[in-house]
Write a structure and sequence with these properties.
Length: 503
């Protein structure tokens, strides 16, 4: 007897419909799975056999062939267990085959028949909605995530026995567990920072416009402290952004048991990370840290200590907002729209320009070579973080994260209204055409920018990014027109390069 079950395979952060065909015929007992599955898929034979027998079902002692179609697409992971088990039950007459006609299933089976959570449930639910499947059966732990997608009825099950009861129409499903709280208990706040008026202004500009930021200065001056407080002033996620972030983290396996992501991600990988770990890769492509930071912050502390190949791999994701990983003639696309915040010392000892510096000219030259010009050219705000004075340390805080976030939120609202008919969400994502449309300069301001460009201090890309930052400065001041002071401020952040970094 032949049975058909619908499930979905993950490809990048999207899902692909897979038809699980189960054929049971007389013959010597055998259980074969075909259709280009990986080792985890092939091992499903033993999990399915034990799960069905330990749940009180009869496992057919016949020849069983399972085909995962389309057969030319590679399948990976244990999420096919439930579909294979349902196909065996339907083909052997233990559940009605017609009950599977408009139902998709996904989940991993334990040997005892319990359903375990699997990666990418949100992407699978979205795929079910696109495919017109009206009902989706998932493990209890993934039900809250699957329910985020409208138009699909989600049935939660804790075991294969419950799934069989759902297919027979004996029950609707189980109640999912309560959603886990996604909010941090104690998020770092700018109220902890003393002094650093200039760097904090740069943080607000970066948060308001989505601009990249480089903090440079001696050790212990507060670079890491400032960077870790940027998420606290970023505008709240819109629902569309939250769905994107949730899908990526779910595919990566970092979002089990939760519903919609409530806050922007903050990723701070160690400087020993590999290029594939940073931008994504692997035999079966998975998101890297750049994609896990999508719509949030990617913080690279001690930038000069990172592998140069890893840093160079960031150049295209920073420019395009996505990375394409090709494996086995198949391409997986991962989004990478994040705010890059980097921190570095101006020289190996960290005290360049002071009497405490003991680095030689050769040391400085080696340090400069670790950070390429093309990468630095993609950073909008170059900030020199100086040692705060004793008076600064004793003074009260200059601002709080709540006040800075309100200013950034107001600026973002102006940008969303201005860019509503485009694909850009903030000033940093504006295309050259949008910059020409929304950044109009008067003759004196144009002359100022031309002078800086003709002096050789700006690349063409740098010229373009100065205009974006100037647009953000104007938005923070609630001005529709970009004035000469806005461009002058943007040039100041761009041309006041950190000591010994971009020389």
């Amino acid at each position: 007897m032949l049975a058909h079950v619908t499930t979905f395979a993950l490809r990048g952060i999207e899902s692909l419909r897979v038809a699980v065909e189960v054929d049971i015929r007389p013959g010597l007992p055998a259980f074969a799975i075909v259709g280009l599955g990986d080792k985890a898929v092939r091992e499903a034979r033993e999990r399915v056999r034990a799960a069905l027998q330990n749940s009180g079902f009869e496992f057919p002692q016949r020849r069983i062939v399972v085909n995962l179609a389309p057969a030319h697409v590679r399948k990976a992971g244990a999420g096919f267990d439930l579909a294979i088990a349902c196909g065996v039950l339907a083909a052997s007459g233990q559940v009605p085959g017609e009950a599977l006609e408009d139902v998709a299933v996904s989940g991993e089976l334990s040997l005892g028949g319990e359903l375990r959570s699997c990666r990418g449930t949100l992407a699978i639910a979205e795929g079910a909605a696109r495919a017109g499947v009206s009902r989706l059966v998932v493990p209890l732990a993934n039900a809250t995530e699957a329910a985020l997608v409208p138009g699909v009825e989600v049935s939660a099950a804790g075991s294969i026995a419950v799934v069989a009861e759902i297919l027979r129409g004996e029950r609707a499903g189980e109640d999912p567990p309560p959603q886990l709280d996604d909010a941090p208990e104690d998020e770092p706040d700018l109220i902890d920072v003393r002094g650093h008026a200039g760097p904090m202004r740069a943080l607000v500009i970066a948060a308001a416009g989505g601009h990249n930021l480089l903090l440079s200065g001696p050790p212990g001056t507060g670079k890491t402290m400032l960077a870790r407080r940027l998420p606290s002033i970023l505008p709240s996620l819109t629902r569309a952004e939250a769905i994107e972030v949730t899908r990526i983290h779910s595919v990566a396996g970092f979002h089990t048991g939760r519903g919609l992501v409530g806050r922007r991600p903050f990723r701070a990988p160690h400087h020993t990370i590999s290029p594939s770990g940073l931008v994504g890769g692997g035999a079966v492509p998975v998101p890297g840290e750049a994609s896990l930071a999508h719509k949030g912050v990617l913080f690279l502390d001690e930038l000069s200590e990172f592998n140069r190949n890893a840093l160079e791999a960031l150049r295209q994701p920073l420019e395009d907002g996505r990375v394409v990983v090709v494996r086995g003639q198949r391409a997986a696309v991962f989004p990478t729209r994040f705010v890059l915040v980097a921190a570095t010392n101006p020289c190996p000892c960290g005290y360049a320009g002071t009497q405490r510096c003991r680095c030689t000219d050769a040391d400085h030259a080696r340090h400069r070579r670790r950070l390429s010009g093309p990468l630095l050219d993609r950073i909008d705000l170059l900030v020199d973080v100086r040692r705060p004075s004793a008076a600064d340390l004793a003074a009260s805080a200059l601002t709080t994260s709540a006040a800075a976030r309100d200013a950034a939120e107001a600026a973002r609202e102006r940008q969303r209204a201005r860019l509503a008919r485009s694909l850009a969400d903030c000033n940093a994502e504006m295309t050259p055409g949008l910059v020409r449309e929304h950044v109009r300069l008067d003759p004196p301001t144009t002359a100022l920018l031309r002078t800086a460009y003709e002096a050789g201090r700006l690349s063409a890309r740098g010229h373009h990014r100065v205009l974006k930052v100037a647009r953000t400065v104007a938005d923070l001041a609630a001005r529709e027109a970009v004035e000469i002071d806005d461009v002058r401020a943007a040039l100041g952040w761009r041309l006041d390069e950190p000591t010994e970094i971009a020389a």
